[in-house]
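Hi R.,

Here's the chain you asked about this morning:
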Amino acid sequence: MSPRSTDRRARARRSPTPRPWSAALALALAGSAAAAEPVPRVVSFQDAVARALAQNPTTLTAVQEVKRAVAIVEETRSSSLPTLTGNASYTGLDSNRALGTVIIQPANQVVLSATLAVPLAVPQAWVRWAHSLDGVDVAKRSEADARRQLAVTVAKTYLSLVAQHRVVDVTDRAATNARAHYDYAHARFAGGYGNRVDEVRAAQELASDTTQLAAARSALYALQEALGVLLG
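And here is the predicted structure, written out as tokens:
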């Protein structure tokens, strides 16, 4: 019997010594498998853009600014329009006031009056009116720009989210392959056919891929949260 065969049998009977990095790796894998991942709601690209334009606070604020500018136009325009003022008064006495047989003041008396004022030349009001109309145009342009910027931001975030899903898939496959490689290297070392260097190298590769997978998923969750904020 050769010395090499004796050495292999001795290593096969010998149980591997527990290592701190192996325990930490096992705990990390168990914790990642036990953690419940959130299930996001699927939203199409067109629905995401439409929902953001309809519910995002930025666009809602821009719409209210347009309404405010229109209200200012109506306010400034009122000073250039005709004004009709009406007055009514009622006087009640205990009895008619008479001088002899002639009633000079009845007991019940109603007085109605109306005044119509038509501004013919009010240049200051006209200037304010024109200026307020410019404000409406500016508010509408600001609303269109806000909607455009929001749509572009939502589109970029959505496409980044799709790309990050691909990154998570690729990283997950790499971590799965690294796990299989580590199991293979560990089995070879435990059976006496491999060496410790290959096992440690496989464990390091598995730990690196697991870390990259966690980072990719964290970036994915951040993009999902950012898209949720944009959708309102």
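One quick note: Confidence is low (pLDDT under 50) at residues 1-35.

Cheers,
M.
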